[in-house]
Amino acid sequence: MANLLVTGGAGFIGGNFVHFWRERHPGDTVHVLDCLTYAGNRSTIADLPDAQFHKADIRDTDTAEALLRDHAIDTLVNFAAESHVDRSISGPDAFIDTNINGTHALLKAARKVWLDEGSGKPHRFHHVSTDEVYGSLGPQDPAFSETTQYQPNSPYSASKAASDHLVRAYHHTYGLEVSTSNCSNNYGPYQYPEKLIPLFLINALHGRSLPIYGDGMNVRDWLHVEDHCRGIEAAILRGTPGEVYNIGGGQELPNLEVIEQICAGVDQAFAVDPQLAGRFPDAPPAKGQKTETLKTFVEDRKGHDRRYAIDETKAREELGYSASRTFQQGFAETLAWYLENEGWWRPLMK
């Protein structure tokens, strides 16, 4: 039995991880720390009353120390982060403060409780990062591996790169038992509708434009959030302290292809379920039109990385990880979830 503290556990990936861990490890105790910024949603984990919730900021070292000490936490999983690239371009300060200073506050708390005051019992600080720290790939470049040089190109990815280095330093300098995972683009249930898939799904349901950056050919490796959670679980349970593991979905797709699948999926959903036309009368298929008519090309984002791809060889060979879903399977599940859970995302649109 383990005692976990999941930071950012009311967010998209963190909330999915809390659900995943409670199902897979029902004997463990799970505490969630989240300050409930715009992307943190208490309702994401409202159906898990045994996941003990603490509203607090990861920059509050004293609170983190108290939680680690008072609840005998032995595993800290750090999801808490500002993560939207567009927001980092318009307002980078919050990203520096949360992603760098916040991670450092957690590391200081973990060092004090587990090392300076600790009895030497095993512990794990798992840090969740992104493939964006590696920069951008050309069309023929090999996929990112754990030894790829860091070349972050946005304030968001630069702040995550800095936090990754801090985690590494606390292992090599102080002996803190850490692991880090760098993931590709996540999608799935409970994703805040500022990211591509939920944003375009909800826009399509309301007949709003689907703004496509540049030529739409920026390539991403798509990872269903549950597969990501399985990779993190493997890194925590079987990963070597101090190591980094890249977790990918093995589904490289240009944004334009993803958007075309969104449009086709919405059209198909309306064809199968005529009641959707009553729920979403402004959607093109409710009016006999194709969702693709909403596509609009807009000026490219500043510093927009062209291609990301993950080489997951290390995670597969050392942890036994592999993605379980194709994008087609994962997207079908995701579309169904958003159609069935309007009560979750509707309040976020106000």
Automatic annotation (TrEMBL):
Domain (NAD(P)-binding): residue spans on this chain: 5-334
Required cofactor(s): NAD(+)
Keywords: Lyase, NAD
Gene3D superfamilies xref list: NAD(P)-binding Rossmann-like Domain, UDP-galactose 4-epimerase, domain 1
Top-level taxon: Bacteria
Stored InterPro entries: dTDP_Gluc_deHydtase, NAD(P)-bd_dom, NAD(P)-bd_dom_sf
Catalytic activity: dTDP-alpha-D-glucose = dTDP-4-dehydro-6-deoxy-alpha-D-glucose + H2O
GO terms, molecular function: dTDP-glucose 4,6-dehydratase activity
A single BP term in Gene Ontology: nucleotide-sugar metabolic process
Enzyme Commission code(s) on record: 4.2.1.46
Similarity comment: Belongs to the NAD(P)-dependent epimerase/dehydratase family. dTDP-glucose dehydratase subfamily.
NCBIfam families assigned: dTDP_gluc_dehyt
Entry protein name: dTDP-glucose 4,6-dehydratase
Organism: Paraurantiacibacter namhicola
